[in-house]
Every structure is written in structure tokens, then in C-alpha cells.
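Budget justification aside, the reviewers requested a transparent look at the raw inputs and outputs of the sequence design task funded under Objective 1. We therefore reproduce one unedited record. The lines immediately below are the C-alpha cells for a 305-residue chain.
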């Protein structure tokens, strides 16, 4: 079988690009005849259709990319199989997606979103995102690359570093984490909360709102927002530098960074039943518990979940 994989190629450090790159790598390692191409590159895609003659075109994106992932290969008589994430609401292309023999999605939550918004679900199958288990491995805190990350972020050796990574931090639950930290601040060991976000206009506006909340809560001296592009070479060491990776996301199609954080050995805060349940259970209690997990104190009761 010959497969053409459409994604953000060559891959940027973003989630969709990484999802596609890992699929391409996995298929190659399995011996599949596979070629990658950028999902928006119409001319290059047509070039592959002509000489490579793929049996299937697997396209990585969300419903808004349907014209690139589904309609374009169909125009040339090639079978598309989209592998989709969700952005909270499907506003178009329902009939196109429902007519396909197979639609892949990254999680049960994504499947539920598409069914809620009009798809029958009869052709939807869940395919979780891969993880580079060669890169995301436990690392010693004395590793100079790990130490350098903490130094450049201004985190002292004896501080507990809590980390959240996302296009913006609020959608990953940063405001809830800050409220929790403010609630337990006097009971917690010395900590610093680092939010690593992607540079874009909406993120800049959201950062201002988040930092105003931190100031209102009286914890702004312990909150660091860092904006900039980073590569996949840097990500393992950034995650290894933290004691706690906190991402109780408001929306989460899969949770790739959470899986990578677990691979690095970080105590990881996330949830699997939605923000409403998380707020009922109590973010402060969860954060307080993971402080003890990170420090290995008896109150952790041996649990690292």
C-alpha cells in the first residue's frame, strides 16, 4: 500500500505538525511506502497523485481543513482518510465528512464533538496520537541541558517548577491553576509557575488577561509567561526541567504534551471528564497533592497519577 500523508510539512513544532510527522515516521518504520507533503500545497499534492499514485491520502488537521484534506484528493480520484482534531465546534463540511468510508479522530472526546455537531459517527474511529519515546524519557536534574532551562526561566534549584505549555495558557487551564496556587500558597513549598505559549496576536491578548489575574491573586511574582518559538529539540528538556506539568485543559483533543511530560517523569495534572468535573473535585486539592508527589513526601501515599 502507498500512503500520502498531508500535514504541516516540513514540520513546525506545533501539535498538528508533530502528529503528522510521527505518523509519517511510524509508517516508514513499519515498511509502508509513504510520502509527506504540506496539506495546503495544491500543486505538489497533484504532483504526488500523478507519479506516486497513492492508494490512500491521510490528512492531519481539523474540520476546517476539509477542502485541503478531503475535497482536493477526491477531485483527482484519490481516497482521502482525514485524521482530525476538534476546536470545540464543527461549523461546516458535515455532509462531506459523513459520506467518507473512514474518518479518524484523536480521542473519544473529539468523536463526541463531531457527533454532537451533526455527524452520524458510523464512520468515525479513534486513533490516538503517537509519542516519540526515544526523545521523551526521564532525565536527571543535574543534566546541564535541564539545568540551563531552569536557569533561563529564573527557577531556583530548590523551587518547585510548575509548567503549562500551549498556543495560549488559559485554554490549557492556566487560570484555574493560578487560582489553585493562590488558595494553597501559604501551605505549599516555594514554587514558580511557568507558562510557555506560542507567539500570536490572540495569545498576546490572553497573556495580558492571565497576568492581570495573577496580580489580582497576589501571586504575580511567582508567575512567568514566556512567548517564543521553540523546536522539538528543546521540548524534552523544557519538560524535564519541571517538577509538575499542569494542564487541566478546557478543551483537549488528545493531550500530546501531557503524554510527553509523563514520558519525562514529571508529575502531571490533567483530567478525563471535562472541566466541570475538575472544578467540582477541586483544582486546589489536586495541586496540593501533586506538590507532595513532586517532593516525594509521605502525604503523596505513593501515588503518581
Amino acid at each position: 500500500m502507498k500512503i500520502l500523508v498531508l500535514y504541516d510539512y516540513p514540520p513546525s513544532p506545533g501539535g498538528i505538525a508533530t502528529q503528522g510527522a510521527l505518523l509519517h515516521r511510524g509508517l516508514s518504520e513499519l515498511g509502508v511506502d509513504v510520502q509527506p507533503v504540506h496539506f495546503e500545497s495544491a500543486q505538489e499534492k497533484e504532483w504526488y497523485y500523478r507519479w506516486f499514485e497513492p492508494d490512500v491520502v491521510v490528512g492531519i488537521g481539523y474540520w476546517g481543513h476539509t477542502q485541503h484534506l478531503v475535497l482536493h484528493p477526491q477531485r483527482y480520484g484519490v481516497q482521502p482518510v482525514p485524521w482530525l482534531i476538534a476546536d470545540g465546534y464543527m461549523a461546516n463540511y458535515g455532509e462531506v465528512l459523513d459520506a467518507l468510508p473512514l474518518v479518524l479522530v484523536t480521542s473519544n472526546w473529539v468523536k463526541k464533538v463531531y457527533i454532537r455537531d451533526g455527524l452520524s459517527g458510523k464512520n468515525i474511529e479513534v486513533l490516538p496520537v503517537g509519542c516519540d519515546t526515544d526523545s521523551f524519557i526521564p532525565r536527571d536534574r543535574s543534566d546541564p541541558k535541564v539545568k540551563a532551562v531552569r536557569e533561563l526561566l529564573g527557577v531556583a534549584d530548590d523551587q518547585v517548577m510548575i509548567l503549562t505549555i500551549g498556543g495560549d495558557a488559559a485554554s490549557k487551564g492556566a487560570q484555574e491553576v493560578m487560582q489553585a496556587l493562590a488558595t494553597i500558597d501559604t501551605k505549599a513549598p516555594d514554587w514558580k509557575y511557568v507558562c510557555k505559549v506560542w507567539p500570536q496576536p490572540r495569545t498576546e491578548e490572553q497573556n495580558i488577561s492571565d497576568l492581570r489575574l495573577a496580580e489580582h491573586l497576589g501571586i504575580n511574582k511567582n508567575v512567568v509567561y514566556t512567548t517564543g518559538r521553540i523546536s522539538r529539540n528543546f521540548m524534552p528538556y523544557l519538560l524535564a526541567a519541571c517538577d509538575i506539568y499542569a494542564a487541566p485543559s478546557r478543551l483537549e483533543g488528545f493531550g500530546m504534551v501531557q503524554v510527553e511530560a509523563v514520558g519525562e517523569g514529571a508529575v502531571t495534572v490533567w483530567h478525563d471528564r471535562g472541566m466541570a468535573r475538575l472544578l467540582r473535585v477541586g483544582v486546589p486539592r489536586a495541586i496540593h497533592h501533586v506538590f507532595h508527589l513532586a517532593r516525594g513526601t509521605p502525604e503523596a501515599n505513593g501515588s503518581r497519577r
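The chain has two domains: 2-126, 144-300. The chain has a mean pLDDT of 88. Computational costs for records of this kind are itemized in the attached budget.
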